[in-house]
Amino acid sequence: MNTLLSEKHRTVRRSVRNFCERELRPIAKEIDQEARFPWEIVEKMGNLGFFGVQAPIDLDGAGMDSVGYAVVIEEISRVCASLGLCISVHNSVVIYPLLAFGSEEQKQRWVPPLARGEKIGAFCLTEPNAGSDAAAIEATAVLDGDHYVVNANKVFVTNGGIADICLFFVRTDPKAGRKGVSVIVAERGTPGFVVGDLEDLCGMRANPVSSIRLYDCRLPAENLLGKQGMGLRIGLSGLDAGRIGIAAQAVGIAQAALEEGVRYARQRHQFGVPIGKHQAVQMMIADMATQVDAARLMVYRAALLRDQEKPFSQAAAMAKLYASETSSKVADLSVQIHGGYGYSKSYPIERYYRDARVTRIYEGTSEIHRLVIARGVLGQ
Amino acid sequence: MGLHIIVCIKAVMLEPPKGQLIRSVDSLELNPFDWPALEVALRMKEEHGGTVTAISMGPEDSVFVLYEAMAMGVDRGVLVCDRAFAGSDTLATSTALAAAIKKLSPFDLVLFGTRTADSDTGQVGPQTAVVLDLPMVTGVHSIQWTDSGIQVERYADGFREEFNLSLSAVLTIHPRSVQPRGLGLSGIELAFEEGEVEKWDLAELDLSPDQVGWAGSATRVLSWKRVTRERKCEFISGTANEQVEELVSHLKKSGLIG
Ligand SMILES: Cc1cc2nc3c(=O)[nH]c(=O)nc-3n(C[C@H](O)[C@H](O)[C@H](O)COP(=O)(O)OP(=O)(O)OC[C@H]3O[C@@H](n4cnc5c(N)ncnc54)[C@H](O)[C@@H]3O)c2cc1C
User: Fold this and answer.
1) CA pair distance A188, B77, nearest whole angstrom
2) Domains of chain B and CATH, by start
3) What are B92-138's pLDDT values in tens digits?
4) Which residues in A lie closer than 8 A to residue B194 (C-beta atoms)?
5) Widest CA span of chain B, in angstroms?
6) What is the pTM of this model?
7) Domains of chain A
8) What is the ipTM of this complex?
9) Torsion A92-A16-A61-B186 (CA) sign
10) How many angstroms does the Cα of residue A295 sit away from the middle of ligand 1?
11) For an interface test with A, which of B188, B192, B193, B235 has the most A Cβ atoms less than 10 Å from its Cβ?
12) Is A75 a catalytic site residue?
């Protein structure tokens, strides 16, 4: 498989993998159990360019393409999916929309510190009454002189507990329905910006997912991204890019689950032979390896289409759907191979199993992805 | 005009596919023992100014190690590559490298890793120094600049040794002397997209075919096969007391305790 990648992308894989094995592997279990964000390695990751993979070099990013980005997310997630999530959201749905829709001034102001990893980004769309139905958001922004007065209650914000620069989806025109949604940037520290309690999550526990509320928060009008009413367009184009990140994350988790399953199948003996000699276990391994490979190919294809500036939405949606479902399936089979030990915290597979599950839920559930894909196929 | 430091690096095969010794791009990697040599060169450049050139002798598919070196901060990469080099032993390799190094004159230092992860001879650095007729110290831990050259420190057989060397000189760098920096993504992007590796063949080096490859080699590898050591893991079960009993009897049986 890897020979499909260029020399450059193989070097990206090797160097990110080396970093993750050396710096992240030793703490991955502990930060999951303690639900702690690993600040200690953020600076190192920032220096290596992980926080600005696709941002241009003159804005302190690494200037990579989407395939390189997918490889980075995959490798980080193979070792620690929580950090893969942090980096994926930060790059795909924060930096990318700023680059695509921001004014020159906004880019210069926000992108470099984000790309260096000195500031962390968040994407605040979901609300208690608006999940899959993004257009149902209730947050409001009312223009008052040269400021917007914003009230919002955003939940399930990835990086919420640590984010400095947050894209808020708000309603600027209460009567305009889908066209009344806008995106405005809120910086932590602005009066009225309040971070809620961290979610006590099943997986992705090292990511401080939290609610963020804005109470009569006065944000300068120049913090509006794009034009008023462009919010859903900005959101959807960010999510298009984000799908490649989440799909790559799912491939990374699936790869980790596969490797653990193979390792255990070689080492565990029952009935006098390694369990990998039993055909039932071999069938599982074969299915796992095949599905991981297929998912990876779909992710790289979507990324390649994006790099070639061809339509990639449908390919990205399929990759996200298939890779996320695959990571759940593969993690489940790997638990099965581990038997009782797979259900214990003594082995890493239980973490992969928990982490894999949410990839089918966030940045669009599998059901919503099927709707999108079917619409594309049926030409509706 | 600053220093000119040359670092010799190699693509090695790590974790060959099960049962086979196949050289393929996917199983190649920059020799892990060469990273510290590159790091030492780059730190000297950062401190004193100058340029760092990396050279690798190997087939076309090993060119990526030079791009990786450039991604790390090396200024210039040279691949010494010719069909005639096939089958070179460490002597023939040293002959070719020395010719390339001469062509890169003037230079102050030539650095090597102590050995390679795939053939492990540790001969190429020292032999190249001999061919170039330059002073050489192996397994260097640290380097100080003096008025007349450098003072280096090496640990060997429980002793700390110090040497003064005049320049130009050849050093092999101890793998634990420095922690190499990681490759940043922007470095990788710039090296692979904008960097250029020069390719030098036999003619370019003014060597004749009988000095390199099989003809120029003093040794012949007769056969090559992987030796694997069996490791087994046994689980001990039962109550804590039973487990201790069993463990002790195991250790006794294997002669590890008396
Ligand atoms: C760990 C984590 C991190 C997250 N990070 C972020 C973040 O950074 N920013 C952010 O804005 N949000 C984030 N989310 C929220 C996430 O995107 C939403 O949970 C997701 O969009 C689903 O919304 P919901 O939970 O309200 O479910 P609902 O929309 O209520 O869906 C419930 C169920 O109904 C199904 N369903 C809903 N509508 C339809 C339909 N039309 N047809 C068929 N089935 C349907 C869904 O597929 C699902 O099975 C995060 C969530 C989690 C768990």
Assistant:
1) 46
2) 3-211 (3.40.50.620)
3) 888 889 999 999 999 999 999 988 887 778 888 889 989 999 999 99
4) none
5) 74
6) 0.90
7) 2-115 (1.10.540.10), 121-229 (2.40.110.10), 232-378 (1.20.140.10)
8) 0.91
9) negative
10) 22
11) B188
12) no
